[in-house]
Each structure stands twice: as structure tokens, then as C-alpha cells.
């Protein structure tokens, strides 16, 4: 009696597993490849320098959103780097230099200290494209994006322009 129940349970399990396998095989469409899980990026990148609050800060959030919009449109990689430590230009300059060494197509800065450090480095690094969110005049390799309601769209435009520039911006 016990042996019969074990055999019946085993046979039922085999039928169940066979049914599941058949259902999986019959439900799939062989002509359709699965969608890739990883996003395919181009060789371009845009980098954001922020204060210690990162991309969640009130000034940085719309800038980061604009960079992500541009990334979707151009497939450029976007990355961010918050400045930690003392709130001084001297402390922030190495962070800007790090982004220059990563060969970003454009280095964007938002916030008082990151913007001051970026202006300083831009003056000494003419082959790299920079953008700062704030006040002032655009000149040379430095674009000024006014801190206004349309900052997200303006940042997206700056990133798209940098990515689409075939003239080679970085070393």
C-alpha cells in the first residue's frame, strides 16, 4: 500500500513537471529575441560636480534630470561626483580635475563651491568643455546656464551639443 502511494506521487510529479516544461516551450515565440536588460551607451559622457548633497540637492536635482534626459536621447553616459570635505574652492579643484581625467565630453557644475572650482579649472584646461549653473558670461570653453525654471532643458541641450560635436573636445 505504501509503495503504491509513493509510485503514484512520483508519477504525478513527473506529469506535473512535464506539463510545466511543455507549457513554457509552447508559449514562447522563437522569432522574438528577449529585450536586452543592459542599456547600450555610446562612447560619450557628461559629468556633474555637486556639493556634498549630490544629485538630491535642490539645485542639483533639475540639472541631473536634464543630464538624464540628454542621456536617453544620445545614449551618452552620465555620472556625478559630489564634493566632500571643507566647503572651499581649493578642496573642490581636485574633484573637477578627476572629471577632466575621466575625459568627460562636458563637465557641469552646480552649487557655489563646485562652480567656483570649475571656473578655475576651465581657465587652465582649454581642451575640455565646461558648463556651470549660475550667473556670468559664457566664454571660451565655459558655458553658463542660468539658474532658472528652464534649467533642465538648458542642461539637456548643453549635453546634446557636447556629444554631437565631432570636433573632439577632450584630450
Question: What is the secondary structure topology, with strand pairs?
Answer:
Blueprint lengths: L1 H26 L17 E6 L9 H15 L2 E6 L6 H13 L4 E5 L1 H13 L5 E4 L8 E4 L5 H14 L7
Parallel strand pairs: 1-2, 1-3, 3-4, 4-5
Helix pairs in contact: 2-5, 3-4
What features would you highlight for this structure?
171 residues, alpha/beta, five-stranded parallel beta sheet, 5 helices, 5 strands, 15% strand, elongated
Q: H/E series, N to C? A: HEHEHEHEEH
- Summed over residues and divided by their number, the pLDDT gives a mean of 84
CA-CA gap between termini: 82 Å
Overall helicity: 40-55%
Organism: Streptomyces ehimensis
Protein name: BMP family ABC transporter substrate-binding protein
What does this structure look like?
The structure is a single chain. The chain has 171 residues and is an alpha/beta fold. It contains five helices and five strands; from the N terminus they run αβαβαβαββα. The chain has helices at residues 2-27, 60-74, 89-101, 112-124, 151-164; strands at 45-50, 77-82, 106-110, 130-133, 142-145. The chain has a five-stranded parallel β-sheet, with helices on both faces. α3 (89-101) packs across α4. The longest helix is centred in the first third of the chain and has 26 residues, at 2-27. The termini are far apart. The model is unreliable at 167-171 (pLDDT under 50). This is BMP family ABC transporter substrate-binding protein. It comes from Streptomyces ehimensis.
Amino acid at each position: 500500500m505504501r509503495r503504491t502511494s509513493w509510485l503514484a506521487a512520483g508519477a504525478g510529479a513527473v506529469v506535473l513537471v512535464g506539463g510545466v516544461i511543455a507549457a513554457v516551450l509552447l508559449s514562447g515565440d522563437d522569432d522574438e529575441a528577449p529585450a536586452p536588460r543592459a542599456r547600450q551607451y555610446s562612447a560619450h559622457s557628461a559629468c556633474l560636480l555637486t556639493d556634498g548633497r549630490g544629485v538630491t540637492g535642490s539645485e542639483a536635482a533639475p540639472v541631473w534630470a536634464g543630464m538624464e534626459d540628454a542621456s536617453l536621447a544620445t545614449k551618452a553616459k552620465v555620472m556625478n561626483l559630489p564634493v566632500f570635505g571643507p566647503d572651499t574652492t581649493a578642496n573642490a579643484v581636485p574633484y573637477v580635475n578627476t572629471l577632466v581625467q575621466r575625459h568627460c565630453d562636458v563637465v557641469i557644475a552646480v552649487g557655489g563651491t563646485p562652480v567656483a572650482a570649475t571656473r578655475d579649472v576651465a581657465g587652465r584646461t582649454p581642451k575640455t568643455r565646461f558648463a556651470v549653473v549660475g550667473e556670468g558670461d559664457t566664454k571660451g570653453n565655459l558655458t553658463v546656464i542660468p539658474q532658472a525654471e528652464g534649467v533642465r532643458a538648458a542642461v539637456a541641450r548643453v549635453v546634446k551639443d557636447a556629444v554631437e560635436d565631432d570636433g573632439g573636445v577632450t584630450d
